[in-house]
Design brief:
alpha+beta; Transferase(Phosphotransferase), domain 1; 2 domains
């Protein structure tokens, strides 16, 4: 970990970007194949610092909610673009939510995702390479955290790829998705939030590759309850686009890839069904919470 005191070791002009009051700590994986340059690291730091000081950020997010903001930063060629996601703790509601999740005083969501992505890559699961981690704390309380990963070109979410694909492509999508989740679970890992929006798809010569992204809830687990929770998340996300029979065939492919005995299949399907309605209700609440506030009408 590198603090603002020795930030000049990260970037040549980094010492003038922050002050001790910002409480910034930066970690950069310079050994990654898509490691960012000094200029990009400085831009990452400026985005977080300007957000903390409530000044105009040096970049415009392409997606934002009340507590998060996502950026796409382009470095010099041939370095690929960088994806940056920032989690803000600017109001009491966000702090209370962080206390309940043990992310305000404990491990931040960005650091949890940093660790989860590295474990997934070691297990052979396709994930974007994590390249930078930024945290800002006042005392022990978290003010903001951010994680930067390599940008995946020409990638679309699983649900959009499903709509655009033909019947043959959809079968290949199900096979690729089932194989990726089976590889993840066979390594003793669970994502915790494996919705179709957190699975990206890229195509090469007609063969899809599924990427797992946005894994702040990723953790080590071999429990059937955690693995069935991941499957139920995908099931909820695809229920409006597919039939129950189609999704059940995908889980049969998953069971065969995991080597699950046939006599245990009914127990797995029952575990997925038990979590289906609960996850659907939680998703409905999340969409309401993350919806942008309506514009205020001036009198």
């Amino acid at each position: 970990m590198l603090s603002s005191k020795n930030l000049c070791k990260v970037t040549p002009s980094g010492a003038g970007l922050v002050s001790r009051r910002d409480g910034l700590r930066v970690r950069v994986d310079w050994t990654a194949g898509s490691a960012p340059g000094n200029e990009v690291v400085e831009r990452l730091i400026r985005i977080v610092v300007n957000g903390l000081r409530r000044s105009s950020p040096p970049a415009t997010p392409f997606r934002s909610t009340r507590t998060t903001a996502c950026y796409r930063l382009v470095d010099r060629e041939p370095t690929p673009p960088i994806f940056l996601k920032v989690y803000w703790y600017k109001d009491v509601r966000a702090v209370l939510r962080g206390c309940l999740r043990n992310t305000w005083l404990g491990r931040s969501r960005a650091k949890a995702e940093w660790i989860a992505l590295r474990r997934m890559r070691d297990a052979g699961v396709a994930t974007p390479a994590p390249v930078a981690l930024i945290e800002s704390r006042r005392g022990r309380g978290l003010r903001a955290c951010a994680i930067a990963t390599a940008w995946i070109d020409d990638a679309v979410p699983l649900d959009r790829a499903w709509v655009d694909a033909d019947a043959f492509g959809r079968r290949r999508l199900l096979d690729a998705c089932a194989a990726t989740v089976a590889r993840l679970h066979a390594a003793g890992l669970a994502d915790g939030d494996l919705h179709p929006r957190n699975i990206l798809v890229t195509w090469a010569d007609g063969d899809p590759t599924t990427w797992c992204i946005d894994a702040p809830k990723g953790h080590r687990s071999r429990r059937r309850a955690d693995h069935s929770h991941d499957l139920a998340c995908i099931d909820v996300g695809l229920r409006a686009l597919t039939t129950a029979t189609t999704r059940r065939r995908a889980w049969l492919r998953y069971a065969r890839a995991r080597g699950i005995p046939r006599r245990a299949w009914p127990a797995w399907f029952a575990a997925i069904d038990r979590r289906h309605d609960r996850i659907a209700q939680r998703e409905s609440r999340r969409l309401l919470e993350d919806a942008p506030e309506p514009p205020r009408c001036e009198p």
